[in-house]
Amino acid sequence: MKKYQVFLVLIVIIAGIAVAFGSRFVKTVPPGHVAVATLFGKVQPMPYDEGLHFPVNPLLVWYDYDAREDQLTESARVPSQDQLQTEIDVTVRYRINAELTPQTLKETGLKDRVVEVHLKPSLRSYLREAGKSIERAEDFFMEETQDQLQDYILTSLRDDLEPKGLLIDKVFIRRIDLPPFITKAIESKKEREQEVEKQKAELERFRTEQQQQLVQAQAQRAAAEERAAQQRVLADARAYEIGVINEAVAQNEAYLQLQALEALKDMAKDPSTKIYFLDGDSPQPLPLMNIGDSLAPEANSGARR
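The structure corresponding to this sequence follows.
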């Protein structure tokens, strides 16, 4: 009976130890993370990737690193060669190098400490250093200048921080605040440029209208010249017709009288037309029949003789 009680006590003790320390035989690393272990203060050389690890030494002490992509935004006053300072916000996209986490833990510490000790000071330093190559503060607004700054900071951070366990993916310039008087001067310059563009547009519109009016005037002139040419042709035709009639009258004095007779015939067709006879004793009592007499006076005088 006494032996049984001792055995039962041993089982309870073992169960208690298993419950108390059983979880230390298992290590679960979350997705996107990496774990580093130490044994009595000594960093283990191999990191543990995400997933379940069993069995592990229950005496190990664990340090988890978030190896997913992260970003840091810092502001700094950047001097340019004209001795003006420009406030610039820069965002750095980075991540912990999982393979170097044992070295990172040994030399610096956890991720937050790596950012505070290495990333932030380096970013501010390289940002101020990059401004020394900028001639004027307003040049920060130029796309070429911003690309130059981003490339310089990216290259410098990679060379400096990758050996310390930080991988730098991208650098972005988020905001640029120039000194107030520079900003006002740039705004005034933009307003003048916009006014010049507006005047150019107005001048172009006026030039277009003038060209349209010129084309319209040329068309009207061409139309007028065409009408004048038509009138000259009609006048020449009428003159020719009159010349032919005059020539016919000159050759035959009875031509006009024949024409007058034709006119009288047309007039007689209208019932409302009234014809008045001249002197009944005249050899030509009908109207219009004596028109040709004045055109051949010699012939009439010869006939009277």
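Residues 253-296 form one domain.
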